[in-house]
């Protein structure tokens, strides 16, 4: 399993029965993978029954989708119908980002639109490496809590040098106010 999921924080693993694959579900999964490829998550496909057993399932005839989160420390099965494209895309949107994600022009709208709560660190890119372990630890504790099952929270950071005008305009924070952490509930 370790070689299969590599060093990536979030890996979606789709298992299918090689003798009788559900082509429709597989295509929906692959389309969703293409749609969400900007997140950095890996989308994997396998028919390896040994891998299926490592995921805790013995039903080799049934397709299965599992998110291996935080370097394979947490396994989150997809519990809805694989035939529902909207449910699948919604689930991936809510779970695809790693513990500590940089908000950029490519992902900002999606992050802000798909989460109950967003924790944002306004951090200078030169010091982000000193903040990263602290944020990851808090995010890890959150994901391990029971509340994480019912509240979708993402932990993020914004480069306070690169986006200083945006931060000032939207969050009313000036460079002298930073670094700063805020909790926001997007509308």
Q: What is the first-to-last residue Cα distance?
A: 39 Å
> What structural class is derived from the secondary structure elements?
alpha/beta
How many helices does DSSP assign? Answer: 7
Q: How many domains is the backbone divided into? A: 2
Which CATH C-level class of the largest domain is it?
Alpha Beta
Strand order of the largest sheet: 2-1-3-4
Based on CA atoms alone, the radius of gyration comes out at 18 Å
Task: Report the count of strand segments.
Answer: 8
CATH architecture label of the largest domain:
3-Layer(aba) Sandwich
Overall pLDDT: 88
Name the helix and strand elements from N-terminus to C-terminus, one letter apiece.
HEHEHEEHEHEHEHE
* CATH level-4 homologous superfamily of the largest domain: Glutaredoxin
Fold and architecture overview:
The structure is a single chain. This protein has 187 residues and is α/β, with parallel strands linked by helices. It has 2 domains: 94 residues, Glutaredoxin (3-Layer(aba) Sandwich), CATH 3.40.30.10; 84 residues, Glutaredoxin, CATH 3.40.30. Helices cover 35% and strands 22% of the residues. It contains 7 helices and 8 strands, in the order αβαβαββαβαβαβαβ. The strands form 2 sheets. It has a 4-stranded mixed beta sheet. Strands 5-7-6-8 form a 4-stranded mixed beta sheet, with helices on one face. Strand 6, helix 6 and strand 7 form a beta-alpha-beta unit. Helix 2 crosses helix 4. The longest helix is centred in the C-terminal third of the chain and has 17 residues. It is elongated. It starts with a helix and ends with a strand.
């Amino acid at each position: 399993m370790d070689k299969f999921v590599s060093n990536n924080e979030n890996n979606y693993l789709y298992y299918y029965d090689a003798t009788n694959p559900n082509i429709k579900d597989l295509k929906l999964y692959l389309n969703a993978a293409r749609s969400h490829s900007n997140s950095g998550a890996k989308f994997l496909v396998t028919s390896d029954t040994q891998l299926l057993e490592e995921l805790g399932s013995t039903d080799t005839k049934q397709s299965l989708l599992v998110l291996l989160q935080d370097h394979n420390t947490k396994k989150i099965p997809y519990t809805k119908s694989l035939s529902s494209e909207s449910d699948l895309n919604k689930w991936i949107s809510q779970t695809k980002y790693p513990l500590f994600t940089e908000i950029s022009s490519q992902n900002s709208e999606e992050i802000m639109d798909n989460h109950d709560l967003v924790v944002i660190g306004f951090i200078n890119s030169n010091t982000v490496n000193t903040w990263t372990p602290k944020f990851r630890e808090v995010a890890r504790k959150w994901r391990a809590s029971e509340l994480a099952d019912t509240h979708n929270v993402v932990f993020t950071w914004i480069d306070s040098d690169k986006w200083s005008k945006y931060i000032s305009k939207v969050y009313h924070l000036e460079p002298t106010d930073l670094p700063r952490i805020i909790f926001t509930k997007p509308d």
